[in-house]
């Protein structure tokens, strides 16, 4: 039977200083002053409209993503946090993460974010190599990145993530591992390390750069995993590594098929409705100017996930976790029975892509490399 899972909140801040050529997120260059106050008012109304979907749940986590949320003032971020707490309430030990670009980092601003209630930063470094940063269109250099991390330390952030990419144009294995070595030495508690992919509707898609070949990528992945493991990091998700079990609570809620409300231009949500035996995916209007226009409907889609797609959606999230995901969660968070997919699971186990496990769905080492192949069986 479908049950209510934990509830998170995603807040989308869509502006950035410059659009990166690999970015397919809903981000918009800020040629003029960002309409911070007007956007706050729109977010507050958005939160109030979505309140019924909480179904009396308090918030488990909040994530400010973008764009570049650190372009907003700490005062604005604090008002959003306060409004969310007033409307929904917070669970004990709530995690509140804000994405920050090293090119917009300021010591006092980081300290003010911490005072505002943000207790975790995600710093978008991508690389410490200046040549690679230039290729990626980033507005910072390696020294800026190191200063931003030092500022995070000095501003009271005990928990922060460093975002890094590998498989970059002209990146050698030594370059990729050097980035990891530098990140490890900073004392970060969490590293997101993922391969650059070329997505539609990006500048790189229009003019694709030459990327490392598959054998090079495999070497980088294998040596990177060893480097992180030797430094005390545990890989708990396809691209996420943590020291001392400092996992990202917000992202784990995603991977465990939890619920989340999404507010802001282009934000997506996922809401379970046990009374209707449905799961819906609300989507907000994408363009900031439309989002700010009260005469335009903000909620552009509110469609339930089709029953024959629920297993795929669950597996698409849960199999990212290296520990796998419980069969009991499958039942509680989809409303389906594990028996409904038992034949597909048995075949995947026979092929060596999933482990034979009494209580969890979990990939083998081979299955982790061919996750798309597994997911195709549920589509």
Structure in words:
This protein has helices spanning 36-50, 74-88, 107-116, 130-135, 142-154, 173-185, 203-206, 214-230, 249-255, 288-292, 310-318, 327-334, 342-350, 365-369, 371-376; strands at residues 7-13, 15-16, 28-29, 59-66, 90-100, 120-126, 160-166, 190-195, 233-237, 240-243, 259-263, 271-273, 278-284, 299-304, 325-326, 360-361. Strand 5, helix 3 (107-116) and strand 6 form a beta-alpha-beta unit. It is an alpha/beta fold. The chain has a nine-stranded mixed sheet, with helices on both faces. It folds into two domains: 7-253, Aldolase class I (TIM Barrel, Alpha-Beta Barrel), CATH 3.20.20.70; 307-379, Arc Repressor Mutant, subunit A (Orthogonal Bundle).
Number of domain modules:
2
What is the class of the largest domain in the CATH system?
Answer: Alpha Beta
**CATH H-level superfamily title of the largest domain:** Aldolase class I
- Low-confidence segments: none
CATH fold assignment of the largest domain: TIM Barrel
Fold blueprint:
Blueprint: E1 7-13, E2 15-16, E3 28-29, H1 36-50, E4 59-66, H2 74-88, E5 90-100, H3 107-116, E6 120-126, H4 130-135, H5 142-154, E7 160-166, H6 173-185, E8 190-195, H7 203-206, H8 214-230, E9 233-237, E10 240-243, H9 249-255, E11 259-263, E12 271-273, E13 278-284, H10 288-292, E14 299-304, H11 310-318, E15 325-326, H12 327-334, H13 342-350, E16 360-361, H14 365-369, H15 371-376
Summarize this structure as a short list of keywords or feature phrases.
379 residues, alpha/beta, TIM Barrel, Arc Repressor Mutant, subunit A, 2 domains, nine-stranded mixed beta sheet, three-stranded antiparallel beta sheet, 22% strand, globular
């Amino acid at each position: 039977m479908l049950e209510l899972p934990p509830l998170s909140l995603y807040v989308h801040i869509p502006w950035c200083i410059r659009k990166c050529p690999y970015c397919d997120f809903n981000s918009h260059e800020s040629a003029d002053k960002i309409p911070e106050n007007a956007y706050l008012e729109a977010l507050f109304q958005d939160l109030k409209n979505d309140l019924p979907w909480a179904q009396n749940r308090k918030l488990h986590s909040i994530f400010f993503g973008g764009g570049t949320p650190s372009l907003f003032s700490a005062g604005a971020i604090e008002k959003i946090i306060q409004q969310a707490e007033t409307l929904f309430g917070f669970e004990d030990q709530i995690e509140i993460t804000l994405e920050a670009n090293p090119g917009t980092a300021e010591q006092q601003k980081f300290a003010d974010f911490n005072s505002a209630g943000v207790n975790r930063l995600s710093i978008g470094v991508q690389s410490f190599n200046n040549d690679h940063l230039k290729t990626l269109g980033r507005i910072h250099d390696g020294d800026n990145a190191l200063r931003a991390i030092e500022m995070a330390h000095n501003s009271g952030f005990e928990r922060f993530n460093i975002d890094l990419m590998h498989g970059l144009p002209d990146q050698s294995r030594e370059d990729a591992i050097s980035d990891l070595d530098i990140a490890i030495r900073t004392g970060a508690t969490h590293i997101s390390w993922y391969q650059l992919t070329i997505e539609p509707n990006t500048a790189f898609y229009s003019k694709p750069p030459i990327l490392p070949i598959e054998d090079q990528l495999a070497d980088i992945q294998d040596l990177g995993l060893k480097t992180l493991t030797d430094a005390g990091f545990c890989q708990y998700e396809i691209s996420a590594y943590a020291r001392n079990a400092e996992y990202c609570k917000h992202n784990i809620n995603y991977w465990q098929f939890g619920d989340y409300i999404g507010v802001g231009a282009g934000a997506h949500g996922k809401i379970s409705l046990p009374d209707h035996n449905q799961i819906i995916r609300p989507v907000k209007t994408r363009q900031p100017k439309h989002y700010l226009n009260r005469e335009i409907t903000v909620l552009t889609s509110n469609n339930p996930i089709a029953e024959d797609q629920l297993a795929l959606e669950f597996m698409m999230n849960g199999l990212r976790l290296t520990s796998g995901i419980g069969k009991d969660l499958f039942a509680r968070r989809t409303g389906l029975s594990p028996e409904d997919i038992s034949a597909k699971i048995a075949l995947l186990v026979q092929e060596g892509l999933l482990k034979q496990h009494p209580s969890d769905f979990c990939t083998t080492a081979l299955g982790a490399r061919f996750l798309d192949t597994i997911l195709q069986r549920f589509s």
